């Protein structure tokens, strides 16, 4: 009975609520354009906020269905294909998109390159939100989430398990990111003594964070080494952990550019184009090295024929590597491209899309050559993934407005932070 009611609510939102929001948005636009009616909020804002809330309502329904009826009630997963979108995108791609945090933190705190400090805190915030939502996604996807809530990986140690290593590293690294971002909260609360304590332990935290991130980024690739003959040979290789680590760094740097551009537009602030240009140059070099080694690895393993085979996997491979790695590497090697903010943003978006496609190729599409197309995500999986993504974006906006995330705000706050009692 409960499931029937929830499904009716979901279809009401999809078939009535969402179309109604679109009609209201179009109506507002027409009133503003042809009749000069001035509104307190723009039509795009009203429609966008309405659609996001509708998406979150659907996601809440999906969550109830998943936890009351099991994974089979909300997903297209099966014993033959037990890992899908929630692992491929929410977990594997989510961890990769936060890769810029440990790189920038290392450059600033370990190597003392203060040049990058203005974009460090927003990058750490992006990574912290990404890893927090990654943990939420794991709780949703794991068959017995109570085992994570009871911290079983902490008490039942299995040093021979890659999954155990990933779980511990993600848990510890999320804690490290929270501590690295804590000074922003202490500045807003004017807790100078707490700020001083966290500032003193920042360097060891960063070193631990680099170690943890390196471990779990590569270990996510190690998970797929148990699937020889199942994962397509374009992606299956003993070097998969190394490729995962290199791509996480390259995509993480590109994500810094994407986040900085979007936040600059949203908050009407200046763009640190000189900093992003230098990061983009390093990203281009990494992409070139990554592409060369990927193709060399396929040839070295005697699978060169797959590079020209007329298959879906070959097409996806060249979109991932050619369009989203080789092309951006060429573009980012050009000073004119790096100096143009819109061109730099477009190249970074290509890199991010290529990284996401790589994780989906490994976790979903690359397995189709063995299993056949036995899995495609259900609409509920897509809705919940989109809800997590939009919730992370909304949380970033709220925290960036309430806390001193960007440089000018930090300077003002530090000048007025009193010493506690």
Describe this structure in words.
With 421 residues, this protein is an all-alpha fold. It has two domains: 1-69; 70-416, Formate dehydrogenase/DMSO reductase domain (Formate dehydrogenase/DMSO reductase fold). Helix content is 76%, strand content 0%. The protein has 19 helices and no strands. α4 runs antiparallel to α6, α12 runs antiparallel to α13 (273-300) and α12 packs across α16. The radius of gyration is 23 Å and the shape is globular. Residues 409-421 have low confidence and may be disordered.
Quick recap:
With 421 residues, the chain is mainly α.
List its salient traits.
421 residues, mainly alpha, Formate dehydrogenase/DMSO reductase fold, 2 domains, 0% strand, globular
Topology overview:
Layout (H helix, E strand, L loop, with lengths): L1 H33 L8 H27 L1 H4 L10 H13 L1 H12 L9 H22 L4 H4 L2 H4 L6 H28 L2 H9 L1 H21 L17 H27 L6 H28 L11 H21 L2 H5 L1 H23 L4 H4 L7 H24 L4 H10 L5
Helicity, in percent? over 70%
Tell me the overall shape: globular
The SSE string, one letter per element, is HHHHHHHHHHHHHHHHHHH
The average pLDDT is 83
